[in-house]
Amino acid sequence: MQFVNAFIAGGLICVLGQILLDKTKLAPARILVIFVVAGCVLGALGLYEPFANWAGAGAMVPLPGFGYLLWTGVRDAVANRGVSGILTGGITAAAAGISAAVLFSLMASLLFAPKEK
After folding, report:
1. How many secondary structure helices (H) and strands (E) does the chain include?
2. Judging by beta carbons within 10 Å of its beta carbon (0-12, 13-18, 19+), is residue 43 exposed, middle or buried?
3. CA 110 vs CA 10, 96, 97, 107: distances in Å
4. What is the C-alpha to C-alpha distance for residues 90 and 35, in angstroms, rounded to an integer?
5. DSSP class of 3
6. CB 90 within 8 A of CB 43
7. What is the sign, positive or negative, of the torsion defined by CA atoms of 23, 26, 32, 33?
8. pTM (whole model) above 0.70
9. Dist. CA 32–CA 14, nearest whole Å
10. φ, ψ of residue 61 in degrees (nearest 5)
11. What is the DSSP string of 39-83?
């Protein structure tokens, strides 16, 4: 059942993104920012954690999950270190994912050559 919940949640988030792409004039970068900020706001309101517990990876892998991760990092860092946690908490919480993205991007750039259209 866990896989079904993740598939449904992740699919609905993707459907919402596709609807925003098709029905609005928003640029993809703006939709990305909307999703990340929505994850932060829903996390701050206490609404994203129950959803993430139900959906598992279906809620944590897409962009709102990244926003929620940033929010939890900031919340924990502020509780432990005070106001300086506002600047350091989100990056500390997301450091592994950011590092993996940079590493895999570097590997892809070394393995594949860009082609002109």
Report:
1. 6, 0
2. buried
3. 31, 21, 20, 5
4. 16
5. H
6. no
7. negative
8. yes
9. 11
10. -80, -45
11. HHHHHHTT-HHHHHHHHTHHHHSSHHHHHHHHHHHHHHHHHHHGG
Quick one: pLDDT at residue 26?
A: 93
Tokens of 106: 């570097």
**Whole-number Å distance between alpha carbons of 64 and 42:** 9
Structure tokens at 87: 């600047």
What is the pLDDT averaged over residues 73-102? 92
Q: Give me the pLDDT at residue 117, please.
A: 74
Q: 113 burial class (0-12, 13-18, 19+ CB within 10 angstroms)?
A: exposed
33, 79, 112 from 63: Cα distances, Å: 9, 25, 26
